[in-house]
Amino acid sequence: MEWSFALMLLLGLMILLMIMGTPVAIAFLTVDVIGAILFLGGEMGVVQVILNMKESLTSFSLLPVPFFILMGEVMFHSKIGFKAIDVTDQWIGKIPGRLSLLAIVGGALFSTMSGSTIATTSILGSLLVPEMEKKGYHKTMAIGPIMGSGGLSMLIPPSALAILLASINKISVGGLLIAGILPGCLMALFYACYVVIRCHLQPHLAPPYDQDSVPMLKRVKRTLIHIFPIGLIIFLVIGLIFLGIATPSEAAALGSLGTILIATAYGQMNFRIMKACILGTLKITSMMFMIITGSMIFSQILAFSGASAGIIEMVTGFDLPPFMILISMQCVLLFLGCFMDNLSMVMIASPIFLPVVEALHFNVLWFALIMLINMEMANTTPPFGLLLFVMKGVAPKNTTMIDVYKAGIPFLMCDATVMALVMIFPQIALYLPALMKG
User: Which one has a higher pLDDT value, 126 or 414?
Assistant: First the structure.
């Protein structure tokens, strides 16, 4: 069987099942079974698929995923980040777009405690949008910054998707987590600059308002109480990985424990909340692991069918500079992001793109980080970006989907700028991983 037919059959069937509304995990499993029968020797192929599933799920590199998800669940249900937002607001002076800047700072802060873009966006939206509406903020300055900063959880550790991407493609999990720090911070800086400049040029978008002055001593005290413990969690997760003291799995476990202890110390943890956190973690982890298993088997079937080798031979045979091929891959991912969730995109595209990247002698860690930026953009790419619908749910009642689309576009432009900078200057992504110990 020609590799092109095998690719069209497997990929076409996968897309068809998703269009029909089949859950991603079930779609992968269905395609894997059909592929095993056709390309792996019938019944013996199905048996091999089952054995490979067991092997893929027992990978030690996947262990941080449930711990990072638990961190996000504890932060979400215990609401320990709300006080940190209040304290941050007290430190922001009379800057144009003050509440929009607070959303960006809050998004970056929450991203260090949760790998969930949905949780970050919903928390910031529920907390800040009513206040912005009360202060007369335009929808563009109210919902746009929240959507943009909510997506930072995709890049700034702990990022569950970064762990999945690294595990599937045999990349250093710690390296990819650390690689997201500088691009994530650069993205937040671009958001902040856009907000300040536009609100300075168009003050009616974010009317200034008077804020009660808080004495310096009181601000410092509140910072030590509500932000310093969060800084400790950040060190437990990011600092220990960077210093080589702990593996990503160990750091994730310590971060989860630290989050639970802080929530308990604040009086925000009880049996009901802990039960909700554990059940939420189990549901999300089970779904992710099912998709991971299906994706890994899908990758193996592509290799056995000859599709992977055929794609590499075809792409490397084009009379195009390697960098143009890289740009073409990003364009494909951006297009897929208009219709697919980022997890499905990663699982489908990784088995196809990564072998090509290796054949073109690009740094795989660098390419994986660019993919993460692309996935972050997919969250706010019309018409079906996931965060667009999350934001619509917490936006003012008179907000239309067109309003949400318009608010997200400037922040998509900031994302695209950062992605271009990372592609042109790879050290933005590779500098910190090169400094890691161990």
Answer: 414
- Judge contact between 386 and 118, C-beta under 8 A: yes
Task: Retrieve residue 280's tokens.
Answer: 């939420």
| Complete DSSP assignment for 244-263 | TSS-HHHHHHHHHHHHHHHH
State pLDDT tens for residues 63-100.
787 888 888 788 778 877 677 777 877 777 678 788 88
The predicted model scores a pTM of 0.78
Residue 385, token pair as written in the block: 């970006």
CA dihedral defined by 275, 278, 280, 283, rounded to 10 degrees?
-130
- Whole-number average pLDDT of the chain: 81
From the list 404, 318, 413, the residue with the least C-alpha distance to 356 is: 318
Of 231, 221, 265, the C-alpha closest to 91 is: 221
Nearest residue to 174 via CA among 113, 247, 231: 247
User: pLDDT grade, residue 428 (50/70/90)?
Assistant: very high
Question: Taking CA 376 as the corner, what is the angle to CA 358 and CA 256, rounded to the nearest 5 degrees?
Answer: 95
Instruction: Output b/e per residue, 271-288; b: 16+ Cβ within 10 A.
Output: eebbeebeebbeebbeeb
Distances (CA, A) of 301 to 25, 280, 325, 356: 16, 32, 24, 17
